[in-house]
Structure formats: C-alpha cells, structure tokens
Amino acid sequence: VAAQNCRKRKLNMILNLEEDVCNLQTQKESLKKEHSQYSKSIIQMKQKLKDLYHDIFIHLRDDQGRPVNPCHYVIHYSSDSSVLIIPK
C-alpha cells in the first residue's frame, strides 16, 4: 500500500509538472508577442523622434539667419518641460 501511494504521489507530481510546463510555454509565447509589439513600438517612436529633430532643425536659424547645423547642436529637454538647443 505504501509503494502504491508513493507511485500515486509521483504520478501526481509528474502531471502537475507537465501542466506547469504547458502553462509556462503559453506564458513564454505571450511574452514573446508582447516583446515583439514593444520592439515595433520603440522603432516607430525612434523614427518619429528622428523626424521631429529633422523638422526642428529645418526651422532653426542662428543670429545671422543661417540654418543651425544639427551636427553641432543637440536638443535638450529639461525636467521643467523647457527645450534648449545646446552645442555638442
């Protein structure tokens, strides 16, 4: 009887572990999809930021009215929501 109970417990453990593996595989697939969506979102945001930088620098002029070179300046966002154009 003790051996039979031991085998039964072992079988229950195996079944529980198989169920856990199945659940973890499902969770893994879900997380992979979520990661893929976030990666796409990040790529889109980076492109929008790049486009925004381009648009801003097209309209910027120095004191003499010449276009500001984006290679020499960077846009800085401060914590108080102000935006500054500062030399690199």
UniProtKB/TrEMBL annotation:
Signal peptide: none annotated. GO terms for molecular function: DNA-binding transcription factor activity, RNA polymerase II-specific; RNA polymerase II cis-regulatory region sequence-specific DNA binding. InterPro entries: bZIP, bZIP_sf, NFE2-like. It holds the Pfam family bZIP_1. Residues 2-50 form the BZIP domain. It comes from the Eukaryota. One of its GO terms (cellular component) is nucleus. PANTHER family: NUCLEAR FACTOR ERYTHROID 2-RELATED FACTOR (PTHR24411), NUCLEAR FACTOR ERYTHROID 2-RELATED FACTOR 3 (PTHR24411:SF8). This is NF2L3 factor. The lineage of its organism: Eukaryota, Metazoa, Chordata, Craniata, Vertebrata.
